[in-house]
Amino acid sequence: MAMIIDGKAISGQIREEIKEKVTGFISKYGKAPSLTVIIVGEDPASQVYVRNKARACEQVGIRSEVIRLPEDTDESSLVSLIEKLNGESGVNGILVQLPLPRGIDEKKIILAIDPKKDVDAFCYENVGRILTGDYDLLPCTPAGVMELLRRSGIEVCGKDCVVVGRSNIVGKPMAALLMHKNGTVTVCHSKTADLASHTRRADIIVAAVGKPGFITADMIKEGAVLIDVGINRTADGKLKGDIDFDGCFEKAAAITPVPGGVGPMTVTMLLQNTLKAAEKQI
Ligand code: L34
Description:
282 residues, 10 helices, Rossmann fold, binds ligand L34, 3-stranded parallel beta sheet, globular
C-alpha cells in the first residue's frame, strides 16, 4: 500500500515558511515582493491556475496583480507590455500564463521577460543556469516535485529515475534536477520503443504525458515512487492524473494524488521564486 504524498499539506507548510520570510522582507525593505501575472484569453484551466496563484500570493503577503488580456491580443502589444513591466522597479516577477492563443509565438514572449524577473525560469539564460547547476530560479513544477521528494524523505541519489515526457517546461528541467541529486535519469517520450521496459525498472517515475491513467500497474515495479504531473479533465469534469492511481496504489511505495499533489506545489514554488527574485533585485 502506497504512502500518499500530500502536496496540499506540504504546500501549506512551505507557504507558512515563505510567509515568515516575506514578513521579514517587508520589515527590512518597507515593501512587499510583487508578482505580475498576465493571462491572455479565456482558457478555463488557466483561469483556475491563475486564480490559485493570486490567492497564494495573498496568503503569504506577496503583492500580486493579474493583467487579463483578450484572446485577440497581438504579439507586439504583449511584448510592449512585458518591456514596460521589465522597467518597473515595483514589479519583481513577471509570469505569462501558458498556453497562449494561436498566433502568438510563446518563445518570443518568454524571451521578452527580463531574466531577473523570469519567475518561471523559462528563458534561455535561466535554462542554461539550470542545466549547469548554477541557478537561483527554478521552473516551478520540477522544483515542486523535488521539494515533494525531499520533504517526504525520498532519496534520489543512486536511484533509477524515469521521466515520461520531454517538454521544456517539465520533462527536460526535471531530468536536470534529478541528475543534480545524483539520480540515474532516463527520459522517455512518445517515440520511446517499449516504454514499459523502462518504467518497470524505475525506482522513481515522474509522469508528465497529458494522458489520463496512462501509467498502469503493470508498467511499474513493486515499491516504486510515483509522481504525477498530469492534470487531465475528463468528460465528466473530474481531474485525472497521468497515473492510474487506484490501479497502482497497492503496488507503489508512494504516490501523489491529482488534484492535491504536484499542482499546489507548482503554485508554492512560484511564491518562492518571486521572493528570491525580489531579494536579488534589491
Ligand atoms: N507560464 N504557464 C506558466 N507557468 C506555469 O507554471 C504554468 N503551469 C502549468 C500551465 N501553464 C503555466 C501552471 O501554473 C500548470 N500549472 C498549474 C498551476 C496550478 C495547478 C495546476 C497546474 C493547481 O492549482 N492544481 C490543483 C487543482 C486545480 C484545479 O482544480 O483545476 C491541484 O490540486 O492539482
